[in-house]
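Researcher: Structure prediction, please.
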Amino acid sequence: MKTLPTAELLTLDRRHVWHPYAAMPHTGPVFPVRSAQGVYLELETGERLVDGMSSWWTCIHGYNHPRLNQAAQEQMGKMSHVMFGGLTHQPAVQLAQRLVQLSPEPLQHVFFCDSGSVAVEVALKMAIQYWHNRGQPQKQHFLTIRHGYHGDTFAAMAVCDPVNGMHHLFRNSLVEQYFAEAPQIPFEGVWQEADIASFAAILEAHHGDIAAAIFEPVVQGAGGMRFYHPTYVRRARELCDRFGVLLILDEIATGFGRTGQRFACEYAGISPDLMCVGKALTGGFMSLAATLATSEISQTFAQGEAGVFMHGPTFMANPLACAVALENLAILDSYDWAGQVNRIEAQLKQELAPCRHLPAVKEVRVLGAIAVVELHQPVDMNTVQPQFVEQGVWLRPFGRLVYTMPPYIIESEPLSRITKAIFAVVSRL
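Model: Predicted structure follows.
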């Protein structure tokens, strides 16, 4: 591959490349990356940035990890891809076994997907087809909670927050779902039953046509970076059981230790009927996700009208991705990741506390390796992003939220660079 001069690279980028959540031509700042190592990104201009985003929360062990590189190289020497229809292979089988071992006990079956959005699509389709198999085809809708985010594909988008997700643009194309009021009691607050009243009322009135409830447990991600009380999750599980509705938990952002538990639902001590995982599954090496299901759900499909589950991604269970994911989970098991996350949490709480006194700040909240500085007004990305780069860190704020989700391997000094940069930039607003 020919290496382009930086100026030419940026010119061609603006001419041809459509970036996420951007228009064409893209007029905002774009920073070309030359390489990445550990917790650092090196730009084509030679600047070295501490990555406070883990590449949208995926690179939990940092970049260019030698064990992940080796796992990929060894697998490429055998096969980088093979179709999964009618075939199977060692990486997929062993990864499925490991995911079953790590996840809550009732989850016994793994359906591999290409991305988190697809994992959500799969879970929604599984829920609908499950009830069809059970002779209740009228159960076609879903209950979720406001401020949630589950992906940008159509079914996933239909269960995202209707305001934050700009749903009115797609109103005539999206299936309307049920939205309960978002939980208000914070993670460490005092539980009050009124917090789940909206969720309970919708289930009581409409459980006859609701296939499943779906939400992100304890931490709502891209819909608002909100942390809420684990009892909400536990009560939702009880209500779903009472009204004959499945529970889908979206652990794509929270899974594999980000909140301080391996899966966020462990704070509530409950298990879902279906669970979506992704993002950190391969340590950010490449895209892979999965939907896990209980035996009670999966065993109905052979007797259903179709006789099978009607879904099959082309790159499902890609051997290269599965091999890397296996090694990523082995790395996670090889050190005290929970201790690392606790250390990160303590440092984030201490060093971001001064932000609470800044005029622009509404709230500061920290849970596990997640820290959020919520502002009174939305940030201007075209000015704020370059300011963080000037401070030597990479952060990607959105809306009123300046947040960090650093790699678990980050040490105290680079983490302090992130917190100091947040204070410096926010203090100018």
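Model: The radius of gyration is 22 Å.
Researcher: Thanks, that helps.
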